[in-house]
Design the sequence.
């Protein structure tokens, strides 16, 4: 019985040491060394209009991006051969406005900007009246996850330590119950 108590004490000390070590490791930030650099995404967006200029639109109207921290490269094409109107591509990202110049039908303009936020980020044509006639769209960033929830950002070492700590705790409880009840 004395040998079992000695073993139980050693196991308890080991568990306490692992608890201290794991709490230290869990408090460390996860390793960022293996994360890829921000993505660089390219999209072609076409501005167009309907006969008589009764409506204007972008194709595509919505662009979904899984996660933020992306560099966006837009190739804007004025494809409006129906009304012959000039168009541009305008977007506000975190309070900064980006816009292509107004271009004639058949012309192309380029724009680059960085998105580091989630949510819906609208874009539009800034020619007076075009937005009101439907020439707007949106980047939908990082909102495909299904709503708010709990997220714990841990690294590999911290995850292994948590699993080891839980396993050791379960083992210690089971062993303690067996020793105190005289089971083997």
Sequence:
């Amino acid at each position: 019985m004395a040998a079992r108590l000695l073993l139980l004490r050693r196991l308890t000390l080991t568990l306490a040491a692992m608890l201290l070590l794991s709490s230290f490791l869990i408090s460390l930030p996860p390793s960022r060394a293996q994360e890829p650099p921000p993505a660089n995404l390219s999209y072609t967006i076409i501005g167009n209009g309907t006969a008589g200029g009764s409506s204007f639109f972008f194709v595509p109207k919505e662009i979904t991006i899984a996660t933020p921290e992306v560099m966006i490269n837009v190739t804007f094409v004025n494809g409006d051969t129906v009304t012959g109107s000039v168009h541009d591509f305008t977007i506000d990202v975190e309070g900064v406005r980006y816009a292509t110049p107004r271009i004639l039908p058949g012309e192309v303009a380029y724009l680059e900007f960085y998105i580091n936020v989630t949510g819906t980020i609208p874009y539009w044509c800034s020619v007076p009246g075009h937005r009101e006639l439907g020439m707007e769209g949106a980047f939908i960033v990082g909102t495909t996850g299904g709503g708010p929830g709990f997220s714990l950002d841990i690294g590999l070492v911290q995850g292994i330590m948590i699993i080891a700590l839980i396993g050791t705790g379960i083992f210690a409880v089971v062993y303690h119950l067996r020793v105190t009840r005289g089971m083997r």
